Predict the structure.
Amino acid sequence: MEVSIIQSKIIEIRGQKVLLDRDLAQMYGVETKVLNQAVKRNIERFAGEDFMFQLSKNEIDDCSRSQFVTLNNGRGTNIKYAPYAFTELGVAMLSSVLNSKIAIETNRGIMRAFVSLRYFALNYTELNRKLEDFMLTTNIQFSEIYQTLTELAEAKKELEKPRNPVGFILPKRENS
């Protein structure tokens, strides 16, 4: 399965990047019920919210209702049972629970997708830091340029002020 397709299914819930059980089941080519049964038979492997957690009612509503707050059309499109959300660690643990060639290949793709997202996030953070450094340096440079231009403008004003004449001035004569 392509990494981009998997990445499109990774969502953020409770501040964690997760895949829902229904999406994982589809990727593994099994029914959601079968995937969840395999997880429940090995629940000790998934202890802790850093592996897997069940969505709350509000989270379910966000996933199953449209923007018009109506149920989605079609049989089987609305969420009946609270789905499980699997973190990257949970997906890695699934590989030990689901032991088929499809599961292994799918798991490789999923792990690549998570790594790719993490790499993108790290690069974005680094790029953002570099941009902030650049902006700070640029602001300092603009501040120095502005200060220099202000000093030059003041010096020009000083040069343009009318000067007091120096020396002896003859009185004006009247022509007779």
